[in-house]
Amino acid sequence: MNFAEFLQENIVYLDGGMGTLLQQRGLQPGEYPERWNVTHPEVITDIHRQYYEAGSHVVCTNTFGANVLKFEESELEQIVKAAVANAKAARDAAVSDRPRFVALDIGPSGKLLKPLGDLDFEDAVTVFAKTVSLGVKYGVDLIVIETMNDSYETKAALLAAKEHSTLPVIVTNAYGEDGKLMTGASPSAMAALLEGMGADAIGANCSLGPKQLRGVAEELLRVASVPVVLKPNAGLPQVINGKTVFDVSPEDFSAELASLMEAGLRVAGGCCGTTPAYIRALTEKTAAYRPVKLTDKNRTVVSSYAQAVTFGDKPLLIGERINPTGKKRFKQALLDNDMDYILSEGIRQQEAGVHILDVNVGLPDIDEASMLRQTVCELQAITDLPLQIDTADAAAMEAALRRYNGKAMVNSVNGKAESMHAIFPLVKKYGGLVVALTLDESGIPDTVEGRLTIARKIVDTAASYGIAKKDLIFDTLTMAVSADATAAVVTLESLRRIRDELGCHTSLGVSNVSFGLPQRDALNGTFFAMALANGLSAAIMNPYSTEMQKVYHSFNALHGLDANCEAYIRVAESFAVAATNTAAPASTAVNAATELQQAIVRGLKDKAGEMAAALLRTVPPLEIVSGEIIPALNLVGEGFEKKTVYLPQLLMSAEAAKSAFESIKTFMATTETASASAGPFVIATVKGDIHDIGKNIVKLLLENYGFEVIDLGRDVPPETVVQSVIERHAPLLGLSALMTTTVPAMEETIALLKQKAPWCKVVVGGAVLTQAYADKIGADHYAKDAMETVRYAETVVGE
Amino acid sequence: MSAVITTRYEEMPLCEADVLRYAGCRDTDAAVLDLLYTCFEELRGSLTYTVCHREFLVSVQGDRCDFGSFSLHSEALAAYLADCGQVVLFAATVGVAPDRLVAKYSRVSPAKALMMQAIGAERIEALCDRFCEDTVQRKGAPMISRFSPGYGDLPLEAQTEVFRVLDCAHKIGLCLNDSLLMSPTKSVTAFFGIKGKKDAL
After folding, report:
1. Looking at the predicted complex, does its ipTM rise above 0.85?
2. Helix H segments across chain B?
3. B17 touches chain A (CB under 8 A)
4. Model confidence over A266-283: pLDDT tens digits?
5. Rounded to the nearest 5 degrees, what angle is found at the Cα of A275, between the Cα atoms of A92 and A266?
6. A69 part of contact set with chain B, CB < 8 Å
7. Any CB–CB contact under 8 A between A240 and chain B?
8. Do A347 and B108 touch (CB under 8 A)?
9. Overall average pLDDT of the A288-315 stretch
10. Chain A contacts of B9, Cβ < 8 Å?
11. Is the pLDDT of residue A674 over 70?
């Protein structure tokens, strides 16, 4: 019998701890246990055999840390080969009447993935792929990915297992006392990610004892449709009389796991501190147990690195603002690779209460696959909202889905054969909840029945790719009511029937309905209310629209979805403010000018933006910059130089100035006024260094003073820096390094720059730098703080 | 030598003065304090205070510090450990939350990023202080300062050894980058000497 079949019908017992037993047999601290496969095969085989004889169906090879980051490739192969041979020898020698399997054990790489650490996602996939391929070569029955404390690394390992084998895969994560992974994922977020990618069983191991992991196991049992796994530690280690002992006995351990088996736990074993005695106690105690039948939890869910968002509990809001369509300022940001602007749209929408962010960066002149991948990576570093990846380009979709840290919403597929054949394989591989549009080769049907027929076709085709109905969400397409009086009615009736007859969730972009009509918000709001009443599960909408927020919160309050109307009461105040704002008279230009300067000096971000917008009605943009913003900034800058103003205050003022600039940029994007820029300034934190606060402060101030700043980010290789300087013929380069260990990278970058782009002046800064050091590594200037960098930049451009 | 023990702490009181010092503020006003507490409220729920440690008997000869299963050469560390019979080697982290929020606000609000950074720095120092206080109490030893790789002539390369013997990645999720910096960044590794004690562990 193969393992996948065995898993479906049986309670599966895994093995217990290895490390503690090896220490008892002489493994030294800091010594790699994996090497013992080669040097002490008899010890490893003996431990495996004891587990099989205690009742384990599955024994994991002693390869927890066997990867190419720790071992040379040749040694790695030797280790995996020996490890599999040891497990097979134990399997064959063991006295046991149970089916016995050998699992390739894969633990964490020991590195944190970017952007939190320095291991690239694709490099992580490659690392795991090497170990997986060796496991396959030497003939394991399944793969166990375990003790992962980061969702992104877990995804990399599972992807490697799926791409390099056809074996069943069990995935278990190490949850902390807060019930989350170290990098933030909840059990339901992990379940969404792992089930989406096709893990055969999922669960928790290590870090805590069975009692403390009970909550995690129960949460997984509630949400997971695949078998749930638990491999706890034997409690917590304590030092008693100089000896390390774990505080949970085999009896208590097995009692806890047995009670979870009654609740549905299907796969059980032990981790640190457990021994064959624990596994024996467990198998004996539960010998008469029958497996609880697996049930499809039928959950429609998406996830981020931290949280799962479920459809059906309450209508969800999907923010539509990360999209260049009809937005000049956004298009400009895309063309300039102005990631800060794009990201701030994400953060603002989250603050406005959306549950999911739609991400669309399609523009004719840009490389959509690379832009979409970059945007997804950057967004998921700063927001814990799930993303809806929105593109018509299948290559861009794959690029983004591959790097997405969770289970994404996929926008979209439609009833055309070509579309389904391009998108469904991606969803099957990377997981995803697909938005399905009810249109096909013959267009958008005018009738409800026509749209339902397409929906049924999509459901059937998805099933043939192994994609369940719960992973489809139908968009019955909102058409302009100005063009067709029945448009809204057909859309609404279609979505109600899809919900009732197909049992699927629905989503709509509501704003199209009002296309071509005045006061669009009024129509959009009413249409949104009607759609909600017809059972709409999610709306792609503008969260800044007061009208839409009013409808959403009123609907929830009226539908009993808002306990004590709390959410309604919380937001109702902003409805009132919005109403007064439109009625307020515009400030006079003189007042606005004074107030703008004061707002910048006092660091009032929102006020500065508003005052600049007010001034723009009467004063040309560049006059506002030279007459108001720069003088205010100079006042603060001088205060900083005289030490009457400190860094946080300087930054708050700089942010207020930036907010004023943002109003001006938006104005200029709409009026297409040419902007004046004081020459490109390339900045970067050097290779190996991941600290970038200082660099970001410099960037903000330079932008305030009108410099166009090309920010290459952190951990940037010398070649990339120099390439960028050459491309833009930049007169100035700023480099930052925080640690003594990364200063050599700075020196290397400067050397390459002087050789390839001798015209460019280089200014350096960072905690460990001094004038002497800067001179030694060949910098043109050392700036002790951000203001000094601005002053130096002005002299360079002045020349 | 003992096993590696992992300890999780509850939140300790925030030292406002230290945060302001790390943020480059010698003076303060209502706006800065408001910023400080807004940031702290956003951060505090996601902070985790974890330490893993291991105890060693140590003997020093010249610049060689012998910890039994490994040894290091450093005059400064040798001087630091001169009167110590035991040493506690520890790694502490407050988790990824400061890194995430610093990254987020670097893009939209450098003032908040600076403050998050300063709070993170204060939090990890407070955690180390707390761990050392507990340790001297448990050991009945006098309080001394701690000593980290990178101090004096102890090179940052010693981190590789520290990470190996403490198994930091597995125990507390702390990883060492190729550049020998740590992720999460708000983390500390250090030796903490126990004056006098020569008894077996």
Report:
1. yes
2. 16-22, 30-44, 75-80, 97-108, 110-139, 158-166, 168-172
3. no
4. 999 999 999 999 999 999
5. 75
6. no
7. no
8. yes
9. 96
10. none
11. no
